[in-house]
């Protein structure tokens, strides 16, 4: 069954961000080329909406659409003075939010997290938004645990994302969650974007571009990706880059936005996920091939980062099942 998505466009919506959901989800197809999602844009009262860029868009649906879909995406809406001052939603927006089905997923792009917080949807949850406004967000909504250092946060039913391209990342994340890495990767290729950036990756706040490509860590990252099965250490990475551990760690964080070992762990997790989705290798062999050493370590990391066992992950993504315990 095709998954129905509604994108809510409010007055002042950022035009580029408004098109993200449709562009990414429309690129997701089953093996026969049939679409897996349908995306429809709506507005309050079905009225034309003036974008942040100064032109109007016309939509075919009003907010009643929110009652009939499986996922609602709130396109980027910069918080107005009233919302920043009071933390309250305009009555018409609150009425639209009240029409969202109790089981529908809700996704905010960028600063639309302010709207979800004002609606009480983020109380007690971890969330993110554009790093520039994270401090203001935390002051206005103290019941929300604000994380300024990530691309998106997945709380299950409620997801929030950071600025700009992070909207693409959260959409690809949902495709991966729904249909696995192969479908998400194919959608990313159709959109000509990076296939996977982990939600915990930093927002790249004013990270400088390396002045000298020869002093970049990019060659070492590629070297490590080709050796994920090996027991690589921080010293191994620094040695390959011909740098001290301290210098390598500093430059790596500046370029990638996270530490070398955190990046390496995420690469290994991603590789293990791909193997579980696309092969019939046992959990033990997946653990060895992805550099975790044994099945116990792999299960521990899957439980910590994904909340389920390797075989539960495999079953959820329709890969060949095994009789071995997970």
TrEMBL record:
Keywords: DNA-binding, Transcription, Transcription regulation. Pfam families: DJ-1_PfpI, HTH_18. This is GlxA family transcriptional regulator. PANTHER family: ARAC-FAMILY TRANSCRIPTIONAL REGULATOR (PTHR43130), HTH-TYPE TRANSCRIPTIONAL REGULATOR RV1931C (PTHR43130:SF3). PROSITE patterns: HTH_ARAC_FAMILY_1, HTH_ARAC_FAMILY_2. Coiled coil: none annotated. Residues 218-316 form the HTH araC/xylS-type domain. InterPro entries: Class_I_gatase-like (IPR029062), DJ-1/PfpI (IPR002818), Homeodomain-like_sf (IPR009057), HTH_AraC (IPR018060), HTH_AraC-typ_CS (IPR018062), INH-QAR (IPR052158).
């Amino acid at each position: 069954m095709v998954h129905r998505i509604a994108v809510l466009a409010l007055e002042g919506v950022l035009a580029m961000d408004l098109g993200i959901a449709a562009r990414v989800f429309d690129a997701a197809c089953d093996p026969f080329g049939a679409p897996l999602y349908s995306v429809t844009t709506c507005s309050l009262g079905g009225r034309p909406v003036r974008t942040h860029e100064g032109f109007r868009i016309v939509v075919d649906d009003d907010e009643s659409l929110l009652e009939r879909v499986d996922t609602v995406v709130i396109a980027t809406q910069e918080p107005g003075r009233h919302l920043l001052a009071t933390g309250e939603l305009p009555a018409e927006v609150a009425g639209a939010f009240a029409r969202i089905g109790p089981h529908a997923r809700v996704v905010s792009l960028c600063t639309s997290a302010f709207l979800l917080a004002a609606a009480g949807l983020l109380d007690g949850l971890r969330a993110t938004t554009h790093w520039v406004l994270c401090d203001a967000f935390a002051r206005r909504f103290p019941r929300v645990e604000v994380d300024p250092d990530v691309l998106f946060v997945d709380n299950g039913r409620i997801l929030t994302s950071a600025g700009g391209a992070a909207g693409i990342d959260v959409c690809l994340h949902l495709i991966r969650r729904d249909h696995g890495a192969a479908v998400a990767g194919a959608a990313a290729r159709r959109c000509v974007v990076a296939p996977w950036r982990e939600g915990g990756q930093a927002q790249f706040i004013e990270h400088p571009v390396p002045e000298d490509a020869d002093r970049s860590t990019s060659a070492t990252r590629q070297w490590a990706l080709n050796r994920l099965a090996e027991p690589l250490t921080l010293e191994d990475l620094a040695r390959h880059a011909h740098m001290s551990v301290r210098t390598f760690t500093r430059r790596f964080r500046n370029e990638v936005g996270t530490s070398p070992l955190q990046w390496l762990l995420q690469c290994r997790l991603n590789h293990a996920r791909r193997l579980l989705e696309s092969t019939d290798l046992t959990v033990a062999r997946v653990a060895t091939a992805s550099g975790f050493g044994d099945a116990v370590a792999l299960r521990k990391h899957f439980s910590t980062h994904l909340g389920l066992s390797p075989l539960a992950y495999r079953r959820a993504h329709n890969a060949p099942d095994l009789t071995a315990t997970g």
